[in-house]
Amino acid sequence: MKLFGESQERNLKRCMKAVESALQELGLEPGECLLDPSEYPEGEIPDNCLSWHFPVPEQDGGDPTRTPRSAEVAILLSVHDDANRLEVRSLVARLPDSNILPLYRRLLELNAEQLDDVAFGVSGDFIVLTTARKTKDITAEQVGEMIEAVAALSHHFQTPLRDEFACLPQDE
Known about the structure:
The chain has 172 residues and is α+β, with helices and mostly antiparallel strands. It has one domain: Yope Regulator, Chain: A (2-Layer Sandwich). The chain is built from four helices and seven strands; from the N terminus they run E-E-H-H-E-E-E-H-E-E-H. The chain has helices at 8-25, 30-33, 100-113, 140-165, and strands at residues 2-3, 6-7, 49-57, 70-79, 84-94, 119-123, 126-134. Helix 1 (8-25) packs across helix 4.
């Protein structure tokens, strides 16, 4: 199948190289971040998908009284009938046990009022931030910008959402 004159397989390989270059720019080893599909919980990652998972440390801004956090980021590269798709997502927090409707309202308000190319969503028991695009002509720089945007917003919203809605950290 051709994707705008470029075979979809060639596009997929080019996009994988862009992801690997973006991860190397972050000082990460791409092979160590790539998840083995057999390690995925059943139903969590589609069969036609590659996934990289890694932490992105928060920039501490020079405040010695504060411990920087990490945003857990995943890159999903999936194959579809018409095009390949790249998604960057970060777990922000676990959903709270109660007060869920006000939380959903707040997430929708943030999507409408403060976010442009990134959006809040819910995946399983987690609040996530995500951005996605088709992979045609994607560069390592663009992948890096997607990672930076999602990680920065995840860092920014983790504490306020946890404080306001009693959300648990993603690792609890």
